[in-house]
Amino acid sequence: MRSLVVALSLVAATAFAEEEPKNVLALETRWRAEGGEALTLSKFEGQWYALTFVYTSCAGSCPLTTAKLKRLATALDKAGRPLPLVVVSLDPAHDTPEALAAYRKRYGLEAATRWRVLVGEESQVRALTMLLGFKYARNAESGAISHDNTIYLIAPDGSVRTEMSSLDQPMETFLSTLPPATK
After folding, report:
1. What does the DSSP 8-state code read for residue 163?
2. What is the C-alpha separation between 2 and 63, in angstroms, rounded?
C-alpha cells in the first residue's frame, strides 16, 4: 500500500510540475557567446526569440535542426519579424570557439548576425533543458548525444509560448503565435 501511495505522489508531483509555466528568466545561468562575451538569457528580455539546442559535432539530427532554423529565419524575415535565433550547445566541453566558428562556416552562417550560439557549464545546460522539458543523454562509450529536436518560441517576458519539432512539424503554428509586426 505504501508503494502505491508513493507512486501516486510521484505521478501527481510530475503532473503538477508539467503544468507550471516554463520561463527561461527564472534561471540565473551564465553563458558564453561565440565571441567570448558573457551573458544571461535576460539579455533577450523584452523581445521574442527562438531557442533550440545542438552540438557542433553531431552527425544526426542537429544538421536538420540547423536547416529548420535557417528556414524559420527566412520565414520570419518574409513576415517582417527578424527574431534572434538562440542556439545553446549541448556539448560545452567540445564546443570551443573554434568548433563554433567551424559550425557557422559549415552551415553558411558566418554573416548571420541574429544567430547567437551560447555555451555554458554542463550544470547550466542541464538546468535549462530540465526547465524546458528538453531531454538529452550522452552515450558514455561513443560520446554521442541523443536528444530531443525542439525549437521554442520565447516571449518578451521569458515564457515559452509554443514549440515545434525541428524535424517534421510545420512552422505555421509557430509563426502564427507571434503578434503582428509593428511598423
Report:
1. E
2. 47
CATH superfamily of 22-177: Glutaredoxin (3.40.30.10)
C-alpha cell at 79: 513576415
Q: How confident is the model at residue 104 (pLDDT cuts 50, 70, 90)?
A: very high
pLDDT in tens, 38-96: 999 999 999 999 999 999 999 888 999 999 999 999 999 998 889 999 999 999 999 99
In DSSP terms, 163 is beta-bridged to 152
Query: 182: which DSSP letter?
Result: P
- pLDDT value of residue 182: 66
Q: Are strands 160-165 and 136-138 parallel, antiparallel or unpaired?
A: unpaired
Task: For residues 58 and 66, give the distance between their C-alpha atoms in angstroms, rounded to a whole number.
Answer: 11
Q: How far apart are CA 170 and CA 77, in angstroms?
A: 17
Amino acid at 4: L
DSSP of 48-104, one letter per residue?
-EEEEEE-TT--SSHHHHHHHHHHHHHHHHHTT----EEEEES-TTT--HHHHHHHH
Q: Are 117 and 33 contacting, i.e. CB atoms less than 8 angstroms apart?
A: yes
The mean pLDDT value for 140-147 works out to 87
pLDDT tens for each residue of 1-11: 544 433 434 44
